[in-house]
Amino acid sequence: MERVKLIDVARAAGVHPGTASRALSPEAGSLVSAETARRVVRAAERLGYVPNTVARGLRTARSFLIGMVVPDVTNPLFPPMVRGAEQVLSRAGFTLVLTDTDNDAETERRQVEQLRARGTDGFLIATARWEDALVQQLADAGVPAVLVNRNSSPHRLPYVGGDERTGVAEAVEHLVTLGHRSIVHLAGPQDTSTGRERASAFRHALRQHGLPVGRGQVRTCAAYSEQAGLDACTRLLSSSVEFTAILAGNDLIALGALTALAGAGRRCPDDVSVVGFNDLPLVDKLTPALTTVTLPLHEMGALSAQILLGAIDEPGRTGPVAQSLLGIKLAVRGSTGPARP
Amino acid sequence: MERVKLIDVARAAGVHPGTASRALSPEAGSLVSAETARRVVRAAERLGYVPNTVARGLRTARSFLIGMVVPDVTNPLFPPMVRGAEQVLSRAGFTLVLTDTDNDAETERRQVEQLRARGTDGFLIATARWEDALVQQLADAGVPAVLVNRNSSPHRLPYVGGDERTGVAEAVEHLVTLGHRSIVHLAGPQDTSTGRERASAFRHALRQHGLPVGRGQVRTCAAYSEQAGLDACTRLLSSSVEFTAILAGNDLIALGALTALAGAGRRCPDDVSVVGFNDLPLVDKLTPALTTVTLPLHEMGALSAQILLGAIDEPGRTGPVAQSLLGIKLAVRGSTGPARP
DNA sequence: TGTGCGTGCACAAACGATTGCAGCCAACTT
DNA sequence: AAGTTGGCTGCAATCGTTTGTGCACGCACA
Questions:
Q1: A30 C-beta less than 7 Å away from strand D
Q2: Residues contacting strand C at CB < 7 A?
């Protein structure tokens, strides 16, 4: 039941452990004769040798561990990204460690510290705030890290996200084509890049279509949550602002808005059209099915992992950091319809 | 920027590294004088010493790593369990490594192997099949492991799940109370404990109510998926079996069934009542909102982690293994209604 | 004052792999 | 045929901690 170790393999092959190590390593494989290498490899297979990652990590100062930090695994936005990242990483021999910060900065700090004590080789950060101490710290320390989905203000780390501006532009275009002239944006929190970007893109898109951007037409929600969406929409309804369409900061906000609208007797899409963001599972099964902007979450996870691997491989690089935006699509469904004349 | 290590702390405190180690370890803390201990601790704090987990792991043969194996993170069933487990584990100083097997046995084997090479201290398995080679293997090897959500046939490992039988009983009771006499079960795959257990409990519940269990009244779906539910329900509709209610193996199957019913012009709940299992996010927002059995997923994750920690602490134990069932509740919503006379 | 005992610390050997260095042998050059 | 080169392999140090062992010192007791 004892784990077989390198020295056992070496003995079985009649060589020194050092030689066995080289024979099994693709890197230094050329330093050993083909004949010996074959003998060692065969012995290793026969004995079922599995190298001890911990021992190797101690010597090489690499852990082959990647930490991925998400605010809440329970939010369906993240699992696809995790999956994409894991596939790329595990193919490259890395193990992904997922940690859930529960949206709490202190928890996040602790988790990352613990991971760093493990000698984690790099981080995938999906929790970035617009101004983020942790992100700064990682950048300062020169720890390989990539931001996913949410960016952070001084672009010091690579970032992978969706092309928010285009997504918003398409959504607005869609609404305008349907005849809507009074569109309101229920924006996400402005301490996230997505919240800021979408709001800014919204204003820009309106101007492009020659529509005025009035006061109270962009309303910031306290969080990316259903409750926050409900609150914001309720306030909107009790204000004097007229509107026939809502662009929500994400699907949860859209759901809250739908609830608020229903409560106020406004029908969707007959009275008000609603567009969401993210295309969460099941929003296509609602009545009406939610029109929403879909992000390539899986690809975002995969690409961020690839970029991270690149950064790990050349630690000395000081070139410009990449900000990658992936294509986005609008899924037109039942929650948007022609504006009432 | 160099990481400060134990020897630095020792030097700063004017003691030998061995002594410093003991001073910092609560275990052996009594082997060193209070005065020295204080000096060492202060030095450690001042220098910002963070012990190297890898080196420690090499010496102690413990990694403080727990692997959690799920078939698909993207399935909303799992994230809450992951979350529950992570909270317990991280409090105990362990790091949770999540791996997604993509429902593939070979991937699963590879992942677990990789984790074992890391000296992972224990496993949380959420992928168990009724007959499962991996589970057998872990049990044989004496690796601490706990099954979550799905059990495996010879109960050799501890298991934590929901009280399926009671859940099914309540669902059937609910339907019978509504006047339904012809109830069909679209069962999940029979190579999973949940699929078997729910089907068996369904038969039992019918008998309890004096209802006959006819042929074709329990139909097995090929997978826990929407497509499988749609297929099974389509076949059901084209058979001669009469029914006014469906108990689905889980929510996805229920969704598929709803689609099939709608396609056949049968309305829910007017013509057919449907009950699901799991209470996935948003199923309460559908029209009609899905009546479903809710599992305490978070608690399942937390409890399984606790049991695992216990197993790790006393490796020698050979007592009986615990099979823990947590309470379950029926969420009555719009998809169930009175049977038509 | 000598023996005995206990406390507190230093010493060094692990843990299992990687890797710079040195040595050996064979082959090739001149 | 002697010298040189170069390809393989063995040796031993090393990564940072933990922990068994033993020494030294101080105190108490006879």
A1: yes
A2: A 3, 5-7, 17-18, 21-22, 24-25, 27-28, 49, 51-52, 55-56, 58-60; B 14-19, 31-33, 35-36, 55, 58-59, 61
